[in-house]
Amino acid sequence: MEKSRGMPDFLLLFMTLALVGFGIVMVFSASYILAYYDPDYNNDSLYFVKRQALWALFGLIAMLIAMNVPYSFYKQSFPLIAFFSFLILFLVYTPLGKELNGARSWIGLGPFTLQPAEFSKVGLIIYLSGLISKKGERFRLWKNGLVPALVVTGTFFLAIAGQPDFGTGVILLMTAVVVIFSGGAHLKHLMALCIPAVAALAVMIMLAPYRIRRITTFLNPWNDGMNGLDEGYHLIQSFYAMANGGVGGVGFGKSIQKYLYLPYPQTDFIFSVMAEELGFVGCALFLLFFILFLWRIIYITTECKDTFGNLVGIGIVSMVSIQTIINIGGVTGSIPITGVPLPFISYGGSSLLVCMLSMGIILSISRETHKQGLRSQQTDRFDA
């Protein structure tokens, strides 16, 4: 254990709490109509927001713990972290497993459900970062460096894809590619991961007709949506919400589409509710804040003088960025809908908990970076 550590990056801490707070507010606005009219939620208009606030509290505790865990722990324990991250993926096949929306991706813990695949993304980031920093230049060698990274990544991906959880598997795979490439792998090396992965994705799409419909529907949702098919209908309702919001929005809490027109307004399509209520200006300000938030993580990462810290930061920024792009791209009709939540904003305990836990790891790295800066200043004064 380290006797003294630097201060965490308070700007990142504030920005994280601001995002979480904004997310809770938007979950309330997007969900209270659905929760009030649906007996599955006890006709309680506060059903979702109360649970999201509770998950935010759990996330805050997890973030503070991760922030105060010595940075060296993550670096030294990366194989163990990866092992447990992979092991919990198989809990969905035990009696604890629950099937929701056609996927057995959750485990039940009393009144709550957790999605192990969300935690595996962080576990894989830590594993790849630890492996690359340990191997150094030897990481570029096939047998001792690249093969373990590619095999572990592929194993994680197949375990998630088998649940099946297509969206999370894609995010995990793309994040791993960024970390491996940032760690020094050449493009030709990445092809050893990408080609089998693309082939596996193609097989998954061909074996599941609904995935083919998602790909074809986003190109022209009106063909299916007007006939009542889910894929087209969801996207059309999202378009209506964004069109109704216009430039300035209809005002907070005044969305029309959340009145049981827009499916999953508190999860997959929460950005559509934001667009309707806050308009183009509100969404642009949100995205600007989000970009500054990601930039702050990148700044902390680049300030760290350790390969492991650099790669963990790159991995977490990539994970959050890719998931954000996939969510917003889906609801705006730019890419097929995959059903992944908007980080920090959408309702969902696992996503929020993992996002806040990830920020705790970044804050732990920032403490190490701050300590390095203090040591450098003390050395400069001594030399002077």
Question: Any overview of this molecule?
Answer:
Its EC number is 2.4.99.28. It holds the Pfam family FTSW_RODA_SPOVE. The chain crosses the membrane at residues 12-33, 53-71, 78-96, 108-129, 141-160, 166-183, 190-212, 278-299, 311-332, 344-365. The two termini are 31 Å apart. This protein is mainly alpha-helical and 384 residues long. α1 (10-37) packs antiparallel against α12 (270-303) and α4 (78-87) runs antiparallel to α5. The protein has one domain (78-355). Residues 377-384 have low confidence and may be disordered. It contains 14 helices and three strands. The protein has a three-stranded antiparallel β-sheet with strand order 1-2-3, with no helix packed on it. Helix content is 70%, strand content 4%.
> Strands of the largest sheet, in order across it?
1-2-3
Low-confidence stretches: 377-384
Number of domains: 1
Kindly report how far apart the N and C termini lie.
31 Å
Gyration radius, rounded:
21 Å
- Tally of DSSP helical segments: 14
Most strands sheet? 3 strands, antiparallel
**Backbone structural class:** mainly alpha
H/E element order: HHHHEEEHHHHHHHHHH
Shape: globular
Question: Beta-strand percentage?
Answer: under 5%
Helix content: 55-70%
Overview in brief:
70% of the residues lie in helices and 4% in strands. The chain has helices at 10-37, 47-68, 71-76, 78-87, 116-135, 142-161, 166-182, 187-207, 209-217, 221-225, 230-245, 270-303, 307-331, 349-383, and strands spanning 97-100, 103-109, 112-114. InterPro entries: FtsW (IPR013437), FtsW/RodA (IPR001182).
